[in-house]
Each structure stands twice: as C-alpha cells, then as structure tokens.
Amino acid sequence: MKMFDLTGKVAIVTGGNGGIGLGMARGLAEAGAQVVLSGRNQAKGDKAAAELGHGAIFIAADVTKKADCAALVEAVAARLGRIDILINNAGIAIRKAPQDITEVEWHRVMDTNMTSAFLMSQLVYPHMVAAGGGKVINIGSVMSLFAASHTAPYASSKGAIMQFTKATAAAWAKDGIQCNCVLPGWIDTELTVAAREQVVGLNEMILARTSAGRWGKPEDLAGIAVFLASPASDFVTGAAIPCDGGYMARG
Fold first, then answer.
1. Would you identify the CATH topology of the domain 2-190+218-242?
2. What pLDDT does residue 251 have?
3. Active-site option among 58, 154, 186, 227
C-alpha cells in the first residue's frame, strides 16, 4: 500500500546490528527504505547489513559520544543525500539493586539509552527540516511504565525517553516531524538472554503474564516500525505504543 511505502527514504537505526534494531530495520528495508545500521562492533554490523540486504550499509559509531553521533549523521547525509527516519534503539541494562549501582554504571546506562537519543535527534533535526519532514522513533520499554527491583537505571532511562519523545513531538510538529515511542515487552534478544540468566524465575513470570504466551521476537517489531516511519502515521505524534504481546494488558 502506498501509505506504507518507504521508497526513496533514508533511515538510521542505532543499535541496528542485532536484536530489536535489526528486526525494525528489516521492516523498513522491505518497505523500500535505504537503511543505515549503526553500532560499535564493525564485524557484527557488516554481517547484519549483508544479511539484511536491500542495499543496507553499516557505519560504526559509539552513540554515547557526540563526535561519533555527528560523524555518523554527516556521513549518512553526505553519502545518501538526506535523512528521513531515525530509530533510537541503542540500549543496555545493568541489573543490580539500587544501593549497589555505581555512579559509573548509572551514567553508562543513561548515556547509552537516553543521552544518545537526545544527541542523535538533535543532529538529524536540520536534515529532516531540509527534507520537508521526518520520523523519529524512540525505543522505550514496558519499563517506561513499570519497574523492578533490579532495573533502577534502565527503567529511569526508559521513562525519560518516553517523556523526551513527547517534548520533541510538541516542538517539532510544526516542522512536519513526528516523534513516537515504541514500548517493547519482553523480546528474545542477547540483552534478555542475560536477564534470564541473572534473574531467577524471570522466564516463568514473563510467560505467565504475557497474554500471547510467548516471548516476542525481533521481527515482531517490524510492522510498528514501518507504520511509524511511513505516511500512514503522519497524524500520530507524541505517542507511546506498546508492542508487548499483551504484557501490560494484564494490569
């Protein structure tokens, strides 16, 4: 359908060399977008881009560093001529009780999950204005609304990114830029494999609470990525949309 067609659009996906980022990137590429994946691991990124196909490329960057973010954005603009879509997906988690988290660990999570989204959004803004509009998709979490004893920095960062989404949506609507936040549930990725190893009983709790009766897969995020990146969502901005198999519906 034309309203979901991304032909001619250029998308950047941070943390796009695996997990949710790659699942979303696959949806964008299949809808016709030129996708640029970014992450810190060059070998992993090159492999992901090759597997994705559709002309996808990988540019290495540490998005916790402003200089790397700027270099990434300028490289994409110079090579492809425009930037239409940004998915701020880069993220990490450190699972400890609040009293055991060090200041270094706190800043590492916040810089990766939240500050990177601020930097990348600010840097792509003039390019989206020049293109006549754009789409920013921030990756929150069910932890944007819920929390657990071991998630203080992660939940804080995901709550913050949801509010950041609303603020940029309000500020940039006049420029034709829609900013929305996706709240994934428990998705089977490298990040959550570690969670299952570290948190006793987590797998059983997730299966019991998730109405769909299973963990999500990265490809479950492809459809919502296409919707939020396409003209189909031109009147949707500032939203926080769960993609969680019914996890939050259980109350």
1. Rossmann fold (3.40.50)
2. 63
3. 154
